[in-house]
């Protein structure tokens, strides 16, 4: 299950374009759709990414796997999985708030996004300032 860079870029642009078209139609009140329907392209894209990530992580369990640089790789994949779940939690909370299913404050809706952004900053800082000691 290997996608070339061009395929990944095309897939990303396709789902982003679909989401933006649906969002504009909803905001212009041309489509009386549920907010959960508007976010379907985002969730399909996230599902594809999650399946690819889980397949790569499960590939470490097969016999004959070479575990060179394995601990760093599995930590990075675990962070990617947590990041995807935080993004999913944010999208679900945002849709629930916009649809009126919940009366939580907007600040609580953004907690998963803030955690994702802080984690991304920590990851960026670690990748920039990490000094490898051999």
UniProtKB/TrEMBL annotation:
Keywords: Membrane, Transmembrane, Transmembrane helix. The keyword Nuclease does not apply. The chain crosses the membrane at residues 36-58, 78-100, 106-129. InterPro entries: TM_Fragile-X-F-assoc (IPR019396). Signal peptide: none annotated. It comes from the Eukaryota. This is TMM60 protein. It comes from Chordeiles acutipennis. The gene is Tmem60.
């Amino acid at each position: 299950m290997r996608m070339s860079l061009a395929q990944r870029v095309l897939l990303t642009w396709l789902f982003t374009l679909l989401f933006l078209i649906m969002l504009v139609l909803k905001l212009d009140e041309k489509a009386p759709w549920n907010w959960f329907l508007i976010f379907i392209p985002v969730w399909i894209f996230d599902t594809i990414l999650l399946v690819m990530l889980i397949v790569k992580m499960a590939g470490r369990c097969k016999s004959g796997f070479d575990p060179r640089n394995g601990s760093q790789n599995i930590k990075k994949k675990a962070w990617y999985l947590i990041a995807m779940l935080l993004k999913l939690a944010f999208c679900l909370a945002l849709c629930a708030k916009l649809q009126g299913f919940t009366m939580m404050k907007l600040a609580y809706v953004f907690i998963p996004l803030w955690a994702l952004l802080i984690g991304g900053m920590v990851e960026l800082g670690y990748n920039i300032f990490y000094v490898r000691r051999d």
